[in-house]
Every structure is written in structure tokens, then in C-alpha cells.
Amino acid sequence: MQTDSLIYRHNRITRLTHWVNAFALLILFMSGLQIFNAYPNLHWGSKAEPDEVFFSIYATNDDGVIRGYTQLYGWTVETTGFLGIQQTEMGPFPRAFPSWLTIPGYFWLAGGRRWHFFFAWIFALNGLLYFFYNLARGHVRKFFLTPRDLSRLLPMALYYLRLRRESPQEGEYNPLQKMAYTGVFFFLTPLIFLSGFAMSPQLDAGFNWLPAMFGGRQSARTVHFLLTFLFAFFTFGHVVMVMTTGLINNMRSMVTGWYVEGEKTPETTASSSEKSEPPANKEADDDAEK
Amino acid sequence: MQKNSSFLSRRNILLGALQATGLLVLSGCESMFNSLHQNKTVLSILESVEGANLWLLRLVTPRGKLAQEFSEADISRYFKPNGNPPPFTMEYVMNAMTGWPLWRLEVAGLVKEPKSFSLEQIKALPARTQITRHDCVEGWSAIAKWKGVVLREIMKQVQPDPKARYVVFYCMDSDNEGNHFYESIDLRDAGHPQTILAYEMNGRPLPVEHGAPLRLRVETQLGYKMAKYIQRIEFVENFKEIARGRGGYWADQGYEWYAGI
């Protein structure tokens, strides 16, 4: 049993940008779905031929029986009540994503675009602030996945699955964390910006390679949509990890900066199957402003 | 067996409660975002980034660079005619049926030489043919071949005043409330080599549903800027006094005036 000790885990800028980022991503997600609802079909290539749709959310009306469907290539699933048709107080209403998932909550493309572009600026400026501040402090390299981490990915996964005793972690971030953060910072984020930019007629005129790198403007739109769900998947995984490794302690460290090392939180002791959180690293956090 | 079903029902109750809480939170969020969107201050803050978008996009894009031009094989089989229905006045229908003998394009405003052109006169001016991609704000794209007079050519003829900053296009179509369609672009986009007043689409006279006899093509902006059924062009210093003052039919409805993104 370790003695509890407080460590200063997250600096001020990291805490601030983390919460701004969480909020911006939520708004971008929901306003993006509003924009998608204006044309709930996806295509590959430059143009959108109606008979070349590969993904679609739509509604049908067979003699008053209204149903919502979601179609991916040859597969069609009825999604009445969630996708395609939403049950409202005034009866079934055709809309691809339901009102509670979109901003604004009624169909208004112009409004969705206003929110989306405003928070795209917030997301970008906030991300740049986080990135350059932490780059200057030498923090970014701590979560940057290097080739020597690659061989540790499998052992780390085995450790998480309780198939391995020792954590292969060295430093502040474990190899899987590094992979997730490196992927989000250096792959997902640049690509979601580029695919968004590739939908701009002005930028496409200036840089013909921009839509071409995705295979055309409609492909860029599709990629932008798919990356959205990779972000959502990352966020889901992130939240699960936060909850299973000591919710209160993690939340405190992201709000106040202080993290209790060696603490057994009710969250981790509550579930008997989980022994404890992975051993906290013993390295001194050089971000600490003690 | 007994245990199992009670477990299931307990789980169902829990799940149901969770779902209800979720929906309550979500509908709370929904109404919160809706009221935020209807709040004038919030909306004007959100709208403020339009200027930033214009600034950034123009800053990084080299002036006069051409939008991608495609080949005949890329032309869309289907091109959705969007927006308001075609004008349904006796004058428009008669003109359309007889090859536009009475239609004229008036060009006026802050110019040295206001002019009026017949369709024949416009067709006699230097033309440009381009196979370009049309990007609708809704999300779809369609490719077509357009032929028309380069707007710069018209500008050369009427010689805009140095005070002129925008070109306004007045159209013959209107919505069911009687608002006439109009649009405006600034001189940078007006002077773009691919900005044309098109009278041909895919090698045929411009169809009525696509804006006959004359429509705008601005390849650096979204489709809703590309006024159809044009009858008058005006060079202005600002568009505050026109309609609801936001520079275009769609801008008056809440869309961005600058549709380069």
C-alpha cells in the first residue's frame, strides 16, 4: 500500500483547453449532423449522382405507414424512431438524425452552419494553444508514439485484459495511450480539418489537390463524416477509461490539476473484478508547478 | 429461471430510467440550444466568424487560381435544379417560348457607361466554356458544362466607378411571399476568370429550370450565390438598402453572404 501523495498532473492551459475542446467537439458533432440532414446521403468521387449513393438515411410512406431506413450499399435496416423518422408530438416526422442530436434542434441548415463554423474556429485556436504550449514545455513528446513503443502495444493490451502482470509502461503515458493521442493529434485532427477545407469551393479553386487527395469533393464529405465517428469513438473510449480508473480522482486532476497518487477510489474498489488502477508512474511530472 | 427474469426486469427498469433521464437531459439541451440560436446576441456572435472565414480563405488562396475543370465524361447525368421555381409571368413564358426577343440585360449603378444587352449581343461577346463542379450548400455536387460571357468583359464595357465594391444581380424569380431573388458578390469574385454569365448548359441553351436565359457561375462559392433568371446588374458601394440589407436572398434568410465555404 502506497502512501497517498498529491501530484500536480495537468497544467492550467491543458485543463482549460481540455474542457473548451470537449464542448467544441460536442457542438461540432451536433451541428455537423444538422448539416448532414440537409442531404443525408454519401457518395464517393467528385459528384453526387442520385443512383450512386452508397449510404443513405431516408423515409418512406406506404399508404400512410411512415418508416425510416438506413442503407449502406446493399444492406438496409429499418431505423424508424431514431434515423429517418422521428416520433414527435405531432406524429412521425422525417429527418435523418433526430432533433435531440442536432443543433439547432429543428431543421435549419443555415443555423447549423453558423454553429459549425464558429466552433470550428474555437476548436482550431484552442487546439493550437494546447499544442504549442505543451510542445514548448516538452510535454508533447511524452505522448508521441515512437517506433520503440510499437512492440509494447500488444503487451499493454494484454495487461489491460488481465493477461499480463507487468505493465510495459515507461514514462507518463502507456503505449496504447500514446497511440490514441498520437492518432488523434497527428492523424484525425489534421484529416478532419483537411476534409472540411476540401468542401470549400474557394479553397478548392486555390488548391485543386485538396479535394483530389480524398478522391473528390464528395469523398471528402464522406471522409469528414466518417472521421466524426472516429472522434466520437475516441471520446467514448476516453470517457470509459476515465470512469474505470478513478472517476473522482481523474475529474479532480482535470479540474484542479491535482491527482492523488496511490489512492484507492471507490470507483476502482467498487468492482471486485478490477484489482486496482494501473500503477501510477513514479516519474516526477516536470509540468508540476509546485 | 425466476432469478434470471427478475434480473432482466431490474435491468430493464434501470435501462428505462437511464433512457428517460437521457432523453430529459437531451430535450433540455435541445430547447437550450434552440433558445440560444434564437437569441439575437448569441446569433450575432456566431455570425461574426463569417468575416474571419472570408479573411482567412481569401488570405490563403492565390488570386485568380482556377477551379478544377473536368472532362465531358464527368458531366452529371442528373443536375438538381434547386431554389425557387422559375418565374411564371406571362412575359417570362412568352419570352422563353420565342427565344427571348424582348428580354434585355440592364447593367447600371456606379458605372461610367450604363448599358443594356440583348441575348444576341451577349452571345457576340467573348465567351468562355468550362466544365465545373457545382457545390450545393446542402452537401451534393454536380458537374456540368457552362458557356457564357466572362463577367470581366461586361465590366470592361460599362467601366465600374472606383467607388463600386459589389455587383448585385437582380432576378426574375421570386418566392411564394413575393420576395424577388437577388444576389451580390464582391469585385474580387466578379473579376475571377471563371466568373461567367452562362447562357448554355451542356451544349444546349440554358434550360428554364437552370435559370434561362442567363445565370451566374461563381466557381469560388456555393451554388446558392449563382443567381438564375438575371435581368439587371447593378454596381454598388454597399447593399444595405437592398431588400433586407444582407446582400442576397439567401443571406436575408440567415445564410452567409460569403459562401466560399
Radius of gyration of chain B: 24 Å
Please give the domain count of chain B: 2
Could you tell me the number of beta strands of chain A?
8
Assigned CATH class of the largest domain in chain A: Mainly Alpha
At the third CATH level, what is the topology name of the largest domain in chain A? Fumarate Reductase Cytochrome B subunit
N-to-C span of chain A: 25 Å
CATH architecture of the largest domain in chain B: Alpha-Beta Complex
- Uncertain ranges of chain A: 265-290
**Beta-strand level of the residues of chain A, as a percent range?**
5-15%
Largest sheet of chain B: 5 strands, mixed
Order of helices and strands of chain B: HHHHEEHEEHEEHEEEEH
Low-confidence blocks of residues of chain B: 1-5
- Provide the CATH top-level class of the largest domain in chain B: Alpha Beta
Main sheet attributes: strand count, strand direction, barrel closure of chain A: 4 strands, antiparallel
| CATH superfamily grouping of the largest domain in chain A | Transmembrane di-heme cytochromes, Chain C
Task: Count every beta strand of chain B, where a strand is a DSSP E run of 2 or more residues.
Answer: 10
Helix segment count of chain A? 11
| CATH architecture heading of the largest domain in chain A | Up-down Bundle
Explain this structure to me?
The complex is a heterodimer of chains A (290) and B (261). The longest helix of chain A has 28 residues, at 109-136. Chain A folds into two domains: 5-39 and 102-270, Up-down Bundle (Fumarate Reductase Cytochrome B subunit); 41-96, no CATH class. In chain A, a hairpin with a 2-residue loop joins β6 and β7. With 290 residues, chain A is of the alpha+beta class. Chain A is built from eleven helices and eight strands. In chain A, α1 runs antiparallel to α2 (109-136) and α6 packs antiparallel against α9 (217-244). In chain A, the strands form three sheets. Chain A has a four-stranded antiparallel sheet with strand order 2-3-4-5. In chain B, β3 (127-135) and β4 form a beta hairpin. In chain B, the strands form two sheets. A five-stranded mixed sheet of chain B has the order 2-1-10-5-6. In chain B, strands 3, 4, 7, 8 and 9 form a five-stranded antiparallel sheet that branches. Chain B has 261 residues and is an alpha+beta fold. In chain B, 39% of the residues are buried. The model of chain B is unreliable at 1-5 (pLDDT under 50). Chain B has two domains: 2-45; 65-252, Oxidoreductase, molybdopterin-binding domain (Sulfite Oxidase, Chain A, domain 2, Alpha-Beta Complex).
